[in-house]
Amino acid sequence: MPSDSARPFAILVTGGAGYIGSHAVLALLxxxxxxxxxxxxxxxxxxxxxxxxxxxxxxxxxAALVARIIAxxxxxxxxxxxxxxxVPESVEKPLKYYRNNTANSRSxxxxxxxxxxxxxxxxSTAATYGIPAEIPxxxxxxxxxxxxxxxxxxxxxxxxxxxxxxxxINYCALRYFNVAGADPDGRAGQSTAxxxxxxxxxxxAALGKRAEVAIFGTDYATPDGTGVxxxxxxxxxxxxxxxALDTLIARPDESHVMNCGYGRGFSVxxxxxxxxxxTGGTVVRRMEPRRAGDPDALVADNSRILAxxxxxxxxxxxxxxxxxxLAWERTSAKR
Length: 335
Ligand code: UD1
What we know:
By secondary structure, this protein is α/β, with parallel strands linked by helices. The chain folds into two domains: 8-180 and 231-261, Rossmann fold; 198-228 and 264-303 and 317-333, UDP-galactose 4-epimerase, domain 1, CATH 3.90.25.10. Helices cover 38% and strands 18% of the residues. It has helices at residues 19-30, 63-73, 87-92, 94-114, 148-166, 198-206, 234-250, 268-279, 303-308, 318-330, and strands spanning 10-14, 35-39, 54-57, 75-80, 119-125, 170-176, 178-180, 213-216, 228-229, 231-233, 256-260, 266-267, 285-288, 297-298. The chain has a seven-stranded parallel sheet, with helices on both faces. A three-stranded mixed sheet has the order 12-9-14. A two-stranded parallel ribbon has the order 7-10. Strand 1, helix 1 (19-30) and strand 2 form a beta-alpha-beta unit. Helix 2 (63-73) packs across helix 4 (94-114). The structure holds uridine-diphosphate-N-acetylglucosamine. Uridine-diphosphate-N-acetylglucosamine is lined by residues 85-87, 125-127, 176, 178, 196-198, 201, 213-216, 227, 229, 268, 291, 294-295, 298.
């Protein structure tokens, strides 16, 4: 079946029922793309997938299923979000990460090549850098992951580089910094069970869903001693995927590795201050020792994505990110 929109082909989104994937699905649909989603619903939610998308429940490693989707839905590009994302869990269960993030990506990439898919966008991560020698971190700096999560993603980047050199497919690996917030119109947000991300935890605490926020380390080499991160609004990140896709289509001989961040960092205390400012309350803070494997500061140099694509941040404001995360968190007592 050919794509049913004015666009030349349809897009397959893996992990489209997850946090970032569901926002990308909205962005693609809003831009007029025809979208198919494959998700095994292990961590994703069926109701997170916009009803305008075709939904296929299943695994990206099911090559027969993926081949049927590529041919049947007229897929010309894949946005690959499916995977496991919990850093401490990757240390406990490395083989789970090398299966879900590396081996299953290998299978998906093979299905893409065999199905004649021309463009591939991969959710990579700032965790590929490990502890960067310099901040802000550029894409050409050494990639020395300090946990299996980062390594499992870096290995997929390596596969894509080799595959793009050998087959008629180009790719974009987007290295996400700290993704947070929710769709400004309240259509999607982060529902992941047991999420440990700072902003998710902090807005949960502000709404009384948890008693306090632990601050993991107050002796970092940062201005206030707490960890500094580059928080990017999930809808800006989804938008970056649209621009990456347009760039891959316009320049089929080029592939790209690009940081996705705003280029400025906020400390844990600054994030908690933002939450307090917005709610008018006071989140209870508990000082804790450092969490294993946390770098002091991680901030993107985003000049490459700004130079390569027309993407520009639209929601680059910490209070906006927190506000949207809070609004989403309020919508369900369960979350
Ligand atoms: C990590 C990964 C990132 C990945 C994300 C997915 C690294 C360097 N980064 O982000 O690539 O996409 O996980 O899960 O591995 N903090 C607290 N209290 C809390 C929670 C967090 O103080 O309850 C602090 C952390 O110590 C850190 C900051 O807040 O300084 C952000 O932490 P978090 O939101 O968990 O993300 P990262 O660990 O930075």
